Amino acid sequence: MAEAIQHIESKSGIIGSGPDKNTKDQIDRKTAEREQNTRLREMIDELNQTMGSTGTKLAFTLDRSSKKMIIKVINTDTQEVIRQIPSEEAMHIAHHIQSLMGILYDATA
Fold first, then answer.
1. Does pTM surpass 0.70?
2. Each residue's pLDDT tens digit, 19-70
3. Are the beta carbons of 92 and 86 closer than 8 angstroms?
4. CB atoms < 10 A from the CB of 72, how many?
5. Computed from CA positions of residues 41, 47, 49, 51, in that sequence, does the dihedral angle turn out positive or negative?
6. Do 98 and 66 form a contact (C-beta atoms < 8 A)?
7. Is the dihedral of CA 98, 103, 108, 109 positive or negative?
């Protein structure tokens, strides 16, 4: 009986199959994402060093709800935001549009 179960499991790929392709793809994607984030941080540090001589710095943040990158140019002396890309107004409009998506579009229709 045990041999029959093991035979069925090995035929189904449960025994000895190792990680499935989806898991390997997910791991590869996460690794690539980490490497990209590390490179991005290094570039940001380099840009901030370069801009330090002008009295400004760059601040990069990710808006979690829209998954958009926000870039701020900040005066290093006063910590005042000189410029934001996209602007606060544009982000507000994007959030408002995103909240209306369920009303404007119904996937079940």
1. no
2. 556 788 888 889 998 998 888 888 878 877 777 778 888 888 888 877 788 9
3. no
4. 15
5. negative
6. yes
7. negative
Q: Token pair 């380099």 is at which residue? A: 46
- Decide if 42 contacts 50 (C-beta within 8 A): no
Pull the structure tokens for residue 7. Answer: 């035979």
Strand order in the sheet with 81-85: 56-63, 68-75, 81-85
Other beta carbons within 10 angstroms of residue 75's beta carbon come to: 13
- CB-CB contact of 68 with 62 (8 Å): yes
- Residue 59 is predicted with a pLDDT of 84
- What is the Cα–Cα distance from 56 to 42, expressed in whole angstroms? 18
